[in-house]
Amino acid sequence: MLSFVLLVLGFALLVWGADKFVAGAAAAARRMGVSQLLVGLTVVAFGTSAPELAVSVTAALKGANEIAVGNVVGSNLFNLLVVAGLSAVLCPLVLDRDLLRRDWPMSIGAAALLGVMLLLGGGLSRLEGVVLLALFAVVMAMQIRPALQNREAAPAEDEIEMKTSLIVVNIVLGLACIVLGGQLSVDGATGIARMFGLSETLIGLTIVACGTSLPELVTSLVAARKGQNDIAMGNVIGSNLFNILLILGTSAVITPITVQPTAPIDCLILVAVSVLFYLPARKGKLGRAPGAVMALTYAAYTAYLIMR
């Protein structure tokens, strides 16, 4: 019974927190005169990636980050195929030109670079971690500098729908509820799965892996429902860049990462699906049909994980 309560409470916190977080982020973009895409790629992406960052850094500090690469690659696949896919099914996404020309290709390049590192070294060394962090700094500069140069004039005070203090409260409180709700949902779902006798391996590959991406999923779905496509898709691509460059970079610098033999294969799958679904999106829109195919592709990948 406690597991069911935790699951319901967790989802309630996720939905409510995501609604507040997206509202605050959109208002922050308007007040600062920057695009919602930039806020999605940075503030929202960093916030929804906080659980993965906390878990990976904690594991690295304990010298037990062997599964960090698998968690990141699995999370990125979930973000791209399920978060973006279901967001497109809910409301077809009109994609920003900068995201298509700059950010999505950079996420493909980051995944490809990770794959090369894993194939050549069997893991990530401290030096490779430094390289990833340096690339993260370059990516941030490439995203932020043009946005600041093209800032729009801030709206008049009477045109701003949310005060600065309320924006901060919405972002901080919303993010806190998202992180807490995600953890409670994972705990509840894991308890229910064990009650039905599911194996620890299956729980880890499905419920726990998807659970760390629940913040991205709910946040993007809420943003898509509100028609804020740049926040929805910026969150997906931004989180994928954060996961590879910042989280794995930081973890590898703390403690070199060893990987399972299947990690390069999963990384190759990530690159393949990133390129595959980038092709129809290049037209500037991700419709319901490609979104449904993306979600089904993740279901097929999950079946592959269970069987291997």
Summarize the structure.
By secondary structure, the protein is mostly helical.
Explain this structure.
- There is one protein chain.
- With 308 residues, this protein is mainly alpha-helical.
- It has one domain (36-150, 200-307): NCX, central ion-binding region (A middle domain of Talin 1, Up-down Bundle), CATH 1.20.1420.30.
- 81% of the residues lie in helices and 3% in strands.
- It has helices at residues 2-32, 36-48, 50-61, 68-90, 97-121, 126-149, 164-195, 200-211, 214-225, 229-254, 263-281, 288-307, and strands at 93-94, 123-124, 257-258, 285-286.
- The chain has a two-stranded antiparallel ribbon. It has a two-stranded antiparallel ribbon with strand order 2-3.
- Helix 6 runs antiparallel to helix 10 (229-254) and helix 7 runs antiparallel to helix 8.
Topology at a glance:
Elements (H helix, E strand, L loop, with lengths): L1 H31 L3 H13 L1 H12 L6 H23 L2 E2 L2 H25 L1 E2 L1 H24 L14 H32 L4 H12 L2 H12 L3 H26 L2 E2 L4 H19 L3 E2 L1 H20 L1
Antiparallel strand pairs: 1-4, 2-3
